[in-house]
Design a protein that fits this description.
This protein is of the alpha/beta class. About 35% of the residues lie in helices and about 10% in strands. It has 16 helices and eleven strands. It has a six-stranded mixed beta sheet with strand order 5-4-1-2-3-11, with helices on both faces. A hairpin with a 5-residue loop joins strand 9 and strand 10. Helix 10 packs across helix 11. The protein is elongated and about 90 Å long. The two termini are about 25 Å apart. The relative contact order is 0.13.
């Protein structure tokens, strides 16, 4: 395929995306944002992401848009022999294939690595799974909450004796168990005997100014502020007090000092004067609709497939001479099936009709072979 770098760093690259939900589809979405042509292959019932949503948002859900904007979709029943043959024909003209089946499923369907490589020795296969294809847990289902539990993230967030807290963000990927631990910034610390148990990155209740997060060890925060503002922040800790008692007293003193400022901006300013990194604690919705997000142009409206639009967060990386952006809405299941078969594989109406009659090729509700 011809390449136009100005259109995106991956312009001219074709990716076949067989994956579902988040781990896999989001990788495909990143490729699409960077200019690649991404073909989403969906099962007859559609990607599970279409149903993992509140009742009023099912179908073209927020989760589907999050991971699938800018792709084209073909719906194939891979349990039918003709469907596997079509998929391998697409693999033969693709540069990369993404799948997140449980280990062994792709091979049983006749679309595993050996079958893909036989058709296209240059293809790269990205296989996303929970615990590694060769591990004792290879057959277990893996979703983000399960990986959070088995990698220690729940206990880490629960601070040991407290009730474990499930993060809403999904850690993933290849395999998710390995990648989560490899990218966890505390992985090295917990292996030290004894580990560094300093209180890091304290969060202060600044009263009417809300919660304010400050970067660094709590002791560093105290020393920096009390050195910059010795009159306003005398040491409240009794002489000879235990370390925990001193830390609690100083934390309260800083919280009161910040709460006593005339505004949130003023509280952030005194922290900046002490050369401390700080920010107010806000909700994701406040962040997405706030002034910084507006300045950055983070929200891009796309067709929601229901007669309106839906905001999608644009990709974070910016390039000086190439596009990296949301390229279009998420597709309906199988929306581009006929178009892709004709355009890329050269199928005529008779061959397409035979696929439909065999049950291998499916269309969105209300669409037909000429869709």
């Amino acid at each position: 395929m011809p390449t136009d770098f100005a259109n995106g760093p991956l312009d001219g690259v074709r990716v076949l995306d067989l994956s579902r939900v988040i781990a896999g589809p989001y990788v495909g979405r990143l490729f699409a944002d960077l200019g690649a042509e991404v073909i989403k292959v969906e099962p007859p019932e559609g990607d599970d992401a279409r149903r993992i949503a509140p009742r009023h948002d099912r179908g073209q859900s927020w989760l589907l848009h999050f991971s699938n904007v800018g792709k084209r979709s073909i719906a194939l029943d891979l349990g039918k022999p003709r469907a596997a043959e079509v998929l391998l024909a697409f693999a033969a003209i693709s540069d990369a294939v993404i799948e997140n089946f449980r280990p062994g499923v792709a091979e049983r369907l006749g679309i595993g690595w050996e079958a893909i490589r036989a058709r296209n020795p240059r293809a790269v296969l990205l296989s996303v799974n929970g615990f590694g294809a060769g591990s004792a847990w290879s057959d277990r289902r893996a979703y983000a909450p399960i990986v959070h539990a088995i990698t220690g993230l729940l206990r880490d967030r629960g601070q040991g004796s407290q009730t474990p807290a499930q993060p809403r963000i999904a850690y993933s990927d290849v395999p998710m168990f390995d990648a989560t631990l490899a990218s966890h910034s505390e992985a090295g610390n917990v292996l030290i005997d004894p580990p560094d148990d300093r209180v890091m990155n304290p969060i202060f209740d600044a009263g009417a100014h809300g919660w304010i997060a400050v970067g660094g060890a709590a002791q560093h925060v105290w020393v920096s502020l009390s050195t910059e503002f010795p009159r306003e922040l005398p040491d409240p800790a009794p002489k000879g007090a235990a370390l925990e008692q001193k830390a609690a007293a100083r934390h309260q003193a800083v919280a009161g000092f910040l709460a006593g400022q005339p505004s949130q901006d003023a509280a952030l300013d005194v922290l900046a004067r002490a050369k401390l990194a700080a920010a107010p604690v806000i909700t994701p919705k406040e962040a997405l609709l706030g002034p910084l997000a507006r300045e950055r142009g983070l929200l891009v409206p796309v067709d929601d497939g229901k007669g309106g639009t839906r905001p999608v967060v644009r990709p974070p990386a910016r390039f000086s001479a190439s596009r990296n952006e949301v390229r279009g809405p998420a597709p309906r299941p199988g929306e581009h099936g006929v178009e892709l078969l004709r355009e890329l594989l050269g199928f005529d109406a008779e061959r397409i009709r035979a696929l439909v009659e065999s049950g291998a090729l499916l269309f969105p509700e209300g669409a037909g072979e000429d869709a």
